[in-house]
Design goal:
With 475 residues, the protein is of the alpha/beta class. Helix content is 58%, strand content 9%. α5 (78-98) runs parallel beside α8 (126-138), α9 (147-158) packs parallel to α11 (190-211) and α10 packs antiparallel against α11. The termini are far apart.
């Protein structure tokens, strides 16, 4: 009877989850990180992508999956959105079918920000990594029965993102330790031992090739991690702020204490390696964003998953996971405009309907405005990048080459604008709305006898961007 009730609960939850997340997906318009990955897959070959990964801070698998659709320019953004959704949905199903948590805990995890609002909607490299992490944990007990499969899954997981590398590496070290022990006892065949070791070694070389020196990643405002993380935790209610903070610290501590009390050395190693690795990166290399912070919670969940035996220790870990993810249901991150308010499709469709804009040249000044690049390319709309003075393409999206073009600081200088202005077409600039939600109907930049006039042309609802006709005038 218990199994039947569990199955009914599963189908009720997964049905609600599927309907709501699909509705959200249909209304999602890709933001600049999603478009950025697609543009890279569109413009570069596999070797170039692998060489770019040290700047991206990711690994190549997601870009490889995007390449067939991006190269052929097929139905953007739907293949990207649907593929990512399948990975996120599969991760949730694996959690329900294989994780040793209570139905209540699984329900709270399912409807928390990471699994309900972030992973299934944002088409990036994270959902596929979480799916592989859950698969690795689900198959952990039987890893030596299928060593080739398990070692391959570890390498695939590691090649999704830096966030997933920590989990993949932890599983890899534990698997290698058990594989050597099994091999010495002749419990694993020489063929499986050698092939698994070769797969793991090849994967390690591939990771080092992609990421190279971490010095290229030391640009992420690491000193701001605490303020950014508190911003992720805190919503509008003081009570919820304290609950979110207590849930994170208390839940994380409880899972670690449970692992230590149970003397689960493999789980404890996994917990220290993954949580410690992430915090080291956040504090010393890259401060991160909400879609990175959720991995602290996911690794806490996976660490608790190691406690599969029934009893008091596991119950405490189950409660700790439930409380941690419950605190992510009530925060306001599901409405965060940076993820869900790009309106990139709306903007491009508006441009295509405007006769004055069809043959114009558009100028982009900062990374968020480049969320429209794949759509512009699909319709042969001309877009130039202010920072480089060149046609916008994947080589300059996000990887900005001058200090003028950052998300925080945009400086209009006449020589830079002149490089991107067309002499035989009307020019229009995408300009971000100011923090106080005001804008200037007309503004001007000048140097010497050259003036660049910006005249407001139109706005795009909820996009954060305005369009200005941009004209060069010489005294």
């Amino acid at each position: 009877m218990k199994s039947k009730n569990n199955n009914v609960w599963f189908w009720v939850v997964i049905s609600i989850y599927t309907v709501i997340t699909i509705l959200r997906l249909i209304n999602h318009q890709p933001w600049f990180d999603e478009a950025h990955a697609y543009s890279i897959a569109q413009e570069m070959n596999l070797l170039e992508i692998i060489q770019l990964m040290s700047l991206e801070g990711h690994t190549f698998l997601w870009y490889l999956l995007l390449m067939p659709f991006a190269k052929l320019n097929l139905w953007y953004p739907w293949p990207m959105l649907i593929m990512n959704y399948i990975f996120a949905w599969t991760a949730v199903v694996i959690l329900w079918r294989k994780a040793p948590f209570s139905n209540l805990t699984k329900t709270l995890v399912t409807f928390s920000f990471p699994f309900f609002a972030c992973l299934p909607i944002l088409a990036r490299c994270y959902a596929i990594g979480v799916m592989f992490l859950f698969l690795l944990q689900a198959l952990f007990k039987d890893k030596l029965k299928h060593p080739l499969v398990y070692s391959t899954l570890i390498i695939l997981c590691a090649n999704t993102s830096v966030m997933a590398i920590f989990g993949a590496a932890a599983y890899g070290f534990i698997f290698l330790y058990d594989l050597i022990k099994s091999g010495l006892k002749s419990e694993t065949s020489k063929k499986d031992f050698i092939l698994s070791s070769v797969i793991m070694a090849f994967g390690a070389v591939l990771i080092f090739w992609q990421l190279g020196s971490t010095s290229k990643l030391l640009t992420g405002e690491a000193g701001t991690f605490i303020s950014k993380f508190l911003g992720f935790l805190f919503g509008k209610s003081v009570l919820m702020n304290w609950f979110s903070l207590a849930a994170f610290i208390g839940g994380l501590s409880a899972v670690g204490i449970c692992l230590a009390a149970a003397r689960n050395l493999k789980g404890l190693f996994y917990y220290i390696f993954t949580i410690g690795g992430l915090l080291t990166v956040f504090f010393t290399m890259y401060a991160g964003w909400p879609h990175h912070f959720i991995f602290l919670y996911i690794y806490a969940l996976l660490s608790a998953w190691f406690l599969t035996k029934a009893g008091k220790t596991f119950l405490i870990a189950d409660i700790a996971v439930a409380v941690m993810f419950a605190s992510l249901i009530f925060n306001d991150k599901s409405a965060d405009v940076i993820y869900f308010g790009s309106q990139s499709i709306q903007i491009v469709n508006s441009i295509l309907k405007d006769e004055k804009l069809k043959n114009a040249r558009f100028i982009v000044y900062e990374a968020p405005s480049k969320s429209m690049l794949p759509l512009f390319k699909a319709h042969n709309i001309e877009v130039w990048d202010y920072c480089t003075g060149e046609p916008a393409n994947s080589s300059i999206v996000m990887n900005l080459s001058t200090p003028l073009c950052t998300m925080k600081n945009k400086i209009y200088l006449t020589p830079y604008v002149e490089k991107v202005l067309s002499k035989d077409k009307d020019n229009y600039s995408f300009v971000g709305i100011k923090d106080d939600n005001t804008y200037d109907p007309v503004f001007m930049v000048r140097q010497g006898n050259v003036r660049i006039i910006y005249e407001f042309y139109r706005g795009f609802k909820n996009s954060g961007y305005l369009l200005y006709k941009t004209t060069r005038v010489e005294n």
